[in-house]
Specification:
96 residues; mainly beta; 5-stranded antiparallel beta sheet; two-stranded antiparallel ribbon; 9 strands
């Protein structure tokens, strides 16, 4: 599955911390799908840069998955055999 999303958005970006603070209280579903696919080690290539989110491979997001990625940009590669390589150094924060 290959999905690409390019939206016009204007989140407040803290480049020093590599984080996004959005005025919306709802998480970005595309970033949640990337976080879910990387968290469950489903093979694929994941790229996110601001409003651009690309996912080659991966899985659809489960409705009750609360995690998300909290960085402005990043790249993740999950290979078969549970090998993961990513630029993302933060935690996938799960809000229950």
């Amino acid at each position: 599955m290959f999905t690409t999303t390019l939206l016009s958005c204007s989140p407040a970006i803290d480049m020093k911390k590599n984080t996004i603070s959005s005025s919306s209280q709802y998480p970005d579903r595309k970033l949640q799908a990337i976080a879910y696919s990387m968290d469950t080690l489903i093979p694929g290539l994941y790229i996110w840069l601001g409003c651009l989110k690309m996912r080659l491979g991966g899985s659809l997001l489960e409705e009750n998955y609360p995690g998300t990625v909290h960085s402005f940009w990043g790249v993740g590669l999950v290979l078969p055999g549970y090998r993961i390589y990513t630029t993302y150094q933060g935690e996938v924060i799960i809000n229950y």
